[in-house]
Amino acid sequence: MVVSLSRRGDVEPFHAMDVLAEANRLKAKGVPVVSMAVGQPSDPAPAGVRQAATHALKMGRIGYTDALGLAGLREAIAQHYADHYGLAVSPGRIAVTTGSSAAFNLAFLAMFDPGDRVAIAAPGYPAYRNIMAALGIEIVEIELDGDAYLHAEHLKAAHRERKLKGVLFASPANPTGAIIPADELSALVTTAQELGIAVISDEIYHRLAYAAPDTTALACGPDVTVINSFSKYYCMTGWRIGWMVLPEPLVRPVERIAQSLYISPPELSQIAAIEAFKATAELEAVKARYAGNRQLLMKRLPELGFTLAAPMDGAFYAFCDVTRHTNDSMAFARKMLAEAYVAATPGRDFDPLQGHRAMRFSYAGSHDEMVEAMMRIERWLR
Ligand SMILES: Cc1ncc(COP(=O)(O)O)c(C=O)c1O
Asked: Which of 83, 98, 269, 369 is the most exposed place for a label (fewest CB within 10 A)?
């Protein structure tokens, strides 16, 4: 038997999944674990979304759609840009994708060749690094070193060292929750464009900002690739549905790659997702609960010796410096789970260099769970 293993498959594992697997093992044994480890809403998809899916299932056949998605959903997404940001976006520039995860794959394949250098911020979402590594793209990790977010000067310095082909950032960010202020975002995108660097803006945590209105990088010009998803604000992680807004010249290349890679995003989820934009009242109630959790954690985590490493501007994460307790956040997370029954994510996945000093707490759970988790950690630390 010959088994061929490519170098591409040799990407880093998602270390946080080990903590998650252990939390699940404990839960299966009946241990009342509070999980602050997962980056997903605890609420179901909005009622209208679920009704539309039920109706579609009753009515008949679910099949392939156009590779770039159902016309009705592409129009609904375009309308969302008009309603939420006051921006006119043609439905023809929208590609519906199998979660934003597939959008990254498609964008990277359509925009970059093996060996191209693409910058991301550290700490940052680990899949950026892992997908790019699998595709042979050279990843340039820009250590934020205490800065809350990536800004134009970081980009200039990295480009001076060796030329970049692209930059990818998220605002609000995972794991920090930090938001790039509108003027800084504009400076970052303008600088990238002046230097000839293509921009990808991950806006998956939009509509989950607590202090300022959302600014889309699209407002800075039509050359930016924007990636978004129904997973977070819309509580639809398992439906695997997201989208991209593409510069015109990228639409056809993305369509060609999508036809062969995925054929189409799942039709059932597409039909259902059209309803998501109508569920604002329901979803704002969920967001209000996150806001309450955020207030609690902003006070309690520093009291417990977890220094906030970034402002908790958006998303549903608190990213903390844990060096008052440990220099090995992976071991600390395991111990906290085993002894206090609270699961949180060690920083290693988000930042291979500095992550041992940090931990991410997700506050997407119920308020009671957050109160309980803080009490347990307090008791345990004593
Ligand atoms: C910053 C960021 N981008 C993208 C994703 C992927 O989400 P999905 O593929 O569910 O759209 C996540 C998931 O946690 C994320 O945190």
From this structure: 83
